[in-house]
Amino acid sequence: MAKSKSASDPTKLQPFNKGDDDIVNSVIETPMGSRNKFKFDEKIGTYALAGVLPQGMVFPHAFGFVPGTKAADGDPEDVLVIMDLPVFTGCVVPTRLIGVIEADQTEEDGKAERNDRLIAVAAHSRDYSDVNHLKDLNDNMLDEIEQFFVNYNKERGKKFKVLGRKGPREALKLLKKSLKKAA
Question: Interior CA angle at 53 toward 49 and 59, to 5°?
Fold first, then answer.
């Protein structure tokens, strides 16, 4: 029996869970609490270590991408998934979009580009089941998420400038725009 392409390449998965626009499939590259940054490498068909964070710095929540999308930076759309416990690299987590952190990212060479971060909660979460909008989260939590991305990029010689926070409607618009770019 031949393997389907989606079984070996998570970028070929459908972005929406069974056609339901309320549930977005998020592929986790880096688990919550990890110092190791993983990234799916399409050339080799698996996940590869892309870097290690310094002592005391970890990913505050699961980080990955939405399959079938193409963001402004040319990669699949980034998503930070807030959930109860860590999951493994490569796990597909059905999520609900609750917003987006809009940001510009400046590379070491000075080239700036948009690099927004979709924010979602796991659809099967017990602790975050009542979170439907970024406004439902504690401001300290959102500030810490933004500061993580600022510090993470600084460690990599880049600058991450937060432009704003938007809700789930704007997050879905961004996702649908990146679906069209990928088509």
Answer: 90
Cα torsion through 154, 159, 165, 169, rounded to 10? -110
Q: What share of the chain is helix, strand, coil (3-state, %, to 5)?
A: 25, 40, 40
Output Rg (C-alpha) for the chain, integer angstroms.
Answer: 16
Domain ranges of the chain: 13-182
Helix (H, G, I), strand (E, B) or coil at 165: strand
* Contact between residue 100 and residue 117 where contact means Cβ atoms under 8 Å apart: yes
Q: What's the predicted TM-score (pTM) here?
A: 0.92
- Whole-angstrom Cα distance, residue 71 to residue 69? 7
Beta bridge partners of 64: 28, 79
Residue 76's alpha-carbon distances to 13, 133, 135, in angstroms, are 12, 22, 25
The domain 13-182: what is its CATH number?
A: 3.90.80.10
The most distant pair of C-alpha atoms in the chain lies apart, rounded to whole Å, by: 50
The model's pLDDT over 62-117, given as tens digits with 9 standing for 90+, comes to 999 999 999 988 999 999 999 999 999 999 999 999 999 999 999 888 899 999 99
DSSP 5: H
CB-side neighbour CA atoms (13 Å) of 110: 0
Instruction: State whether residue 131 is helix, strand or coil.
Output: coil
